[in-house]
Amino acid sequence: MSKKRVAKGVVVIGELNIDIVAAGLSESPKMGAEILATDFQLTLGSASAIFACGVAKLGHEVTFISRVGRDEFGKFCMAALRQAGISTRHISRDEDLKTGVTVSLSTRMDRALVTYCGTIAALGHEHIRTSWFKGRRHLHMTSYFLQSRLRSSFPQILLEARELGLSTSFDPNSDPSHAWSDRIRDVLAYTDILFLNEAEALELTRAGTVSAALKMLGAEVPCAVIKLGAQGAVAIRNEEITSVRGFKVEPTDTTGAGDSFAAGFVSSYLRGQSMAESLRVANACGALSTVWTGGTSGQPTLQGLRKFLRAHPPSEGST
After folding, report:
1. What is the pLDDT of residue 8?
2. E-only strand ranges, the chain
3. What's the pLDDT score for residue 315?
């Protein structure tokens, strides 16, 4: 009798762009005024790519599905993914559109983003084959509002993944219009793990507090996680709420910290760890990503993560 093949690996479907990061700003930028940055970097960007790199560094095989322009920035993105050990075989090239660009203006505590969408909005359901999901264990999707062409297909794609036995996670990121259309609930219907930051959770639920928002989200998805930045995170699963404090670090650039957090959580979740430990791992991954400029430079390997957690026992990052 042949052995049953065990599903492994993570599928990430989403946007690819470069990040132009000006870090270490002493104050928020203002129109008509000039301020100075302490660091600058041209790096791989996009929530999807930052998540993919983070989960790959933690030892998971990653299948990445996306679209870039046939230009130098597109080449840059694909080379960066290959360097992270991520296959680019399912990334198509657009002859007419430029690869997307995000300009990140980052202080030590927060950042402002300006994005040119380009190919970010060009990925469609027709560019995705469900056969690429076979033999994989988990699907992650993000940047719901930026991916205008793909947006209406999010529910169908997540459903198709579930039908093939994959678990799913969804991190919509912020809605530039602040409207938070009820159509997003069609996506939640096929989401196993939902990630939101505090502002997003309050806007989506229209609740007055994080606690109220979390309970509302817990009624819609099996597991909801609200990222609280330096304060840590709180989650609900099966009506049980778990809260874990964050780690104290000296941040340089917060770009992509939430995506690194999600990568840590999904990695821990797939390894069968408890909710508290998954949040602790996620907090560590998010914190470590902020000590270097760019979304991927500070992401830990599994060995580096374990070393950090040993040096910071649960008493420093616990409930």
Report:
1. 79
2. 10-13, 17-25, 39-45, 62-69, 91-94, 100-107, 111-116, 138-142, 167-171, 193-197, 223-227, 233-237, 240-244
3. 64
- Element (H or E) spanning 64, and its range? strand 62-69
282 has pLDDT over 60: yes
CB 23 within 8 A of CB 40: yes
Pair of tokens at residue 79 = 């080379």
Whole-number Å distance between alpha carbons of 317 and 283? 8
CA 319 – CA 317 distance, rounded (Å): 7
pLDDT tens digit sequence for 290-318: 998 888 999 999 999 999 999 998 864 45
What confidence tens digit (pLDDT) does each residue in 200-225 have?
Answer: 999 999 999 999 999 999 999 999 99
The CA-to-CA distance between both ends of the chain, in Å, stands at: 48
Q: What is the pLDDT of residues 86-139, one digit of tens each?
A: 989 999 999 999 999 989 888 777 778 888 999 999 999 999 999 999 999 999
- The token duo for 127 is 């560019």
**Nearest residue to 233 via CA among 173, 178, 284:** 284
CA nearest to 104, candidates 47, 161, 143, 54: 47
Q: Taking the CB of residue 218, how many other CB atoms lie within 10 A of it? A: 19
Burial of 102 (0-12, 13-18, 19+ CB in 10 A): buried
Q: Are 42 and 12 in contact (CB under 8 A)?
A: no
Residue type, 209: T
Asked whether 84 and 56 are in contact (CB, 8 A), the reply is yes
pLDDT value of position 36? 92
The CA distance from 97 to 119, in Å, is 6
Residue 15 · residue 66 · CB < 8 Å? yes
- Helix 275-289 vs helix 257-270: crossing angle, to nearest 10: 150
pLDDT of residue 319: 56
| Edge-to-edge strand ranges of the sheet holding 100-107 | 39-45, 17-25, 100-107, 111-116
